[in-house]
From TrEMBL, chains A, B:
Annotated keywords: DNA-binding, Transcription, Transcription regulation
Domain of life: Bacteria
GO molecular function, one term: transcription cis-regulatory region binding
The protein's name: Transcriptional regulator, TetR family
SUPFAM superfamilies: Homeodomain-like, Tetracyclin repressor-like, C-terminal domain
InterPro entries per the UniProt record, alphabetical: Homeodomain-like_sf, HTH-type_TetR-like_transc_reg, HTH_TetR, KstR2_TetR_C, Tet_transcr_reg_TetR-rel_C_sf
Family annotation (PANTHER family): HTH-TYPE TRANSCRIPTIONAL REGULATOR BETI, HTH-TYPE TRANSCRIPTIONAL REGULATOR RUTR
Keyword check for Transcription regulation: yes
Gene3D superfamilies attached to this UniProt entry: Tetracycline Repressor, domain 2
Organism: Roseicyclus elongatus DSM 19469
Annotated HTH tetR-type domain residues: 1-55
One Pfam family in the UniProt entry: TetR_C_24
Length: 178, 178
DNA sequence: GTCTATACTGGGATAGAC
DNA sequence: GTCTATCCCAGTATAGAC
């Protein structure tokens, strides 16, 4: 059910997908879905929450210099996001369709992730490795740039994942370099 | 009507907004809207098309060196997007809700805009001013980074527009520098 | 655990009065 | 040009049979 909801939400948007469609994709009638979820909102919220919790659980800053930490972050971010383009899409596009309480939870998780990148940038700034006039702005700019890879990358295209990650890392490294 | 639709689509999403809501915002009954638009889809399409056409009409590359062209592009892009956060949001988020024919038109306009940035990067690469391993990737990365400013910038915040544009330009300049 | 059937609400769009 | 009224269809969610 979750896989079907994920696919349909990503393709058509949460508001445009009906419980009937999800049921058809699963191969049951709509009523049967309510054995597994209290409502459609919970389906969306749990997809987003689990996605962000996995993102946070999957990566910790290595015990290394800021530049090495940043490279690790960039390469992990790209790999993780390219592995889950549909979840990434939903987690960004469907924020408006969360109830206020659910939105607050998701925003908190997103903030936790941003804080990790900002901590790296601040450490590198203080160590003199980076020249970043504003670490918060740089955090937002870099995450937007990196996450954008999911909008254009296609498997089997001109560049493979390693090449893409290498080029992004090159741009990030130069952008924040002292 | 267009202003009301813009506001509501940006806040709740195209699929979640009803013609009745738009009518209420305008101060008429739903039926009256059909004097001005054939249907809800046209309302969305025209908002997006006019937005992108204005983006294209509003900027031409100045007759200057690639670095100066790039700076002009970056500052214009940020100014234009910060002036229209709702249109920017819709033009990206609601692509899925366009009919295939309308989607093709919007995609063409978007491509035209990307091509302008890519032309600058290619010229700078050939002139030896830039070191960009892949101009298409760099184009997508830079546009994602710059457009992301609309997701966090708030008027009256810690940084004003000029400061924000300056910091973004600094990151862009360094990211593509030879 | 899944189905059929349905309650209830609301959607887009149109007709015809004024 | 706008309103009221309505058509027809689809939505979420639930009840009760099997």
């Amino acid at each position: 059910m979750r896989a079907a909801a994920l696919r349909l939400f990503a393709r058509h948007g949460f508001a445009a997908v009906s419980m009937r469609q999800i049921a058809a994709e699963v191969g049951v009638q709509a009523g049967a879905l309510y054995l597994y979820t209290p409502d459609k909102q919970a389906l969306l919220f749990e997809l987003m929450r689990d996605h962000l919790e996995e993102l946070l659980a999957d990566w910790r800053a290595p015990d290394a210099a800021p530049v090495a930490q940043l490279e690790d972050f960039v390469r992990h971010h790209i790999r993780f996001h390219l592995d889950r383009p549909e979840l990434v899409f939903i987690a960004y596009m469907e924020l408006r369709n969360l109830t206020p309480e659910n939105f607050a939870v998701i925003e908190g998780l997103r903030r936790d992730y941003e804080d990790r990148l900002e901590a790296i940038l601040r450490a590198g700034q203080q160590a003199g490795d980076f020249a970043v006039p504003d670490t918060k702005l740089a955090t937002m700019a870099l995450i937007a740039m990196l996450t954008g890879v999911t909008t254009w990358y296609r498997e089997g295209g001109r560049l493979d994942r390693a090449a893409v990650a290498g080029i992004y890392w090159d741009m990030v490294r130069k952008a924040v370099a002292a």
